[in-house]
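Sequence only, no structure available. Ideas?
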Amino acid sequence: MVKHIVFFKLEENAEGKSKIELAEYIKAELENLKNVIPEIKMIEVGINVPNAPKTDYDIALNSEFDSFEALDIYQNHPAHLKVAGFIGKVRTVRAAVDYIF
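Reply:
I predicted one. Tokens follow.
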């Protein structure tokens, strides 16, 4: 199994939405991918608690796949590319880790 973890820091305002509106929209869109992309075994998206001490990111994506091939299918799926395109317009920083567990 492959674990795919991504963190995003968001703009304060972008695409006509506040940071919390962006985070809620991104969370819903990413979690909905489970209904569209069968290679996703598990996906959850957490929104950072407002004013949490010592945090660097606004959203955490935690997902699992059977293999790196399945992860690649997910990453290149049109539905994922659409969400990723939106995120690319509203994020300032991205960090990711993929590992076998």
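The first strand starts at residue 2 and ends at 10.
Hope that gets you unstuck.
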